[in-house]
Amino acid sequence: MHSAQSLFQATDFNLAPLTPVVDRGFADDVLHGLALPQKQLHAKYFYDQQGSDYFDQICQLPEYYPYQTELDLLPQVATDLAGTFTADCTIVEFGAGSLVKIKPLLSAISSIRQFIPIDISGIHLEMASQQLQSDFPDLAVLPVVGDFCFPVELPVIGNQQKVGFFPGSTIGNFCPAQAASFLKNARFTLGPDSCLLIGVDTKKSPLYLHNAYNDAQGITAKFNRNILSRINRELGANFTPEKFEHYAFYNAGQGRVEMHLVSTSEQVVDVLGSSVAFAAGESIHTENSYKYTPDEFCQLAASAGWQVERTWLAKQDLFATYLLRNRG
Questions:
Q1: Which run of H or E residues covers position 199?
Q2: Which PANTHER family does the annotation name (predicted)?
């Protein structure tokens, strides 16, 4: 089981303080990814404090439809789900971020007593959790710093039903095999009689997708390049982020948007004593965002032991939210 930190105590239902966690695998992942024929970096490392701030800005951009489209859909989802879950249930949010999208559920579903947000960015998580605790003072907010790509050890809270929440189409950042692995791990984390409410982006016009990942203000480009700044700061590398251009496009054959950082010149970068050479035009593949039709996602969920109980589609089928039930 992948370890995660929580200072929750069974007798204390206040917001638990957090101790920041350094991902010990960061250096190994970076060195391994940059040694591949197609250089790559894992998208989870976007989300240091600066990266999380950039992503919050992206979510306010007019081009970036997934955020607002899902946010507009969630009040209807929450209303439809009122009375669905058992009394004193616990909501577990994977990749919690700013905790904005959980609020419609907390407002509409009175049976929620505990909320466990999981995120890799401890500082960002602590700030958001403190604000949520202020907004919902009767809710036990128990933040956990951890990598939700693996099974996560949750605070001991009894045998209440656990409902997972995974908004934002973050599932699309995994390749299908990794997505199935995440869904299986989520079943393990949440346990029997659990449900999972998940947001999934749909397939649509390539031009629509292109605009969403190439905003006019260049915030997505800053977000993409920030991963190089993080490597410099935490691993002592000497990337010059300005020598890499943001490049995002829809790969129709793979059903995904790809994000890359393209070297603008021939250059050599030092990372932890290793020299990493780049040719002009060579890229680092930093992120995928897979898109799924409803049929494709239902098949993916079934392969991981989940059954789709209900589907909500946004206007023009731009986005989908699914309620899954653990079949195990």
A1: strand 195-201
A2: ERGOTHIONEINE BIOSYNTHESIS PROTEIN 1
Query: In terms of CATH architecture, what is 66-147+158-204+291-326?
Result: 3-Layer(aba) Sandwich (3.40)
Can you tell me the distance from the alpha carbon of 113 to that of 115, in angstroms, rounded to the nearest whole number? 7
**94-138 pLDDT tens trace:** 988 778 899 999 999 989 999 999 988 788 889 999 999 999 999
The helix-helix angle for 49-58 and 219-235 (nearest 10°) equals 170
CA–CA gap between residue 300 and residue 322 (Å, rounded): 12
The secondary structure of residue 24, as a DSSP letter, is T
What is the C-alpha separation between 49 and 28, in angstroms, rounded? Answer: 21
Residues of the chain with CATH 3.40.50.150: 66-147+158-204+291-326
Other CB atoms within a 10 A radius of the CB of residue 270 amount to: 13
CB 276 within 8 A of CB 30: no
Query: Do 96 and 125 touch, CB atoms closer than 8 A?
Result: yes
114: enclosing H helix or E strand = strand 112-119
What is the C-alpha to C-alpha distance for residues 92 and 165, in angstroms, rounded to an integer? 6
Q: Please tell me the distance from the alpha carbon of residue 141 to that of residue 13, in angstroms, as a whole number.
A: 7
Residue (of 129, 167, 164) closest to 145 by Cα position? 129
Q: Which helix (H) or strand (E) holds 224?
A: helix 219-235
Helix/strand/coil for 202 = coil
* 170 token code pair: 């973050």
Buried b (16+ CB within 10 A) or exposed e, 147-179: bbbbbbebbebeebbbbbbbbbbbbbbbebeeb
Gap between the Cα atoms of 92 and 270, Å rounded: 40
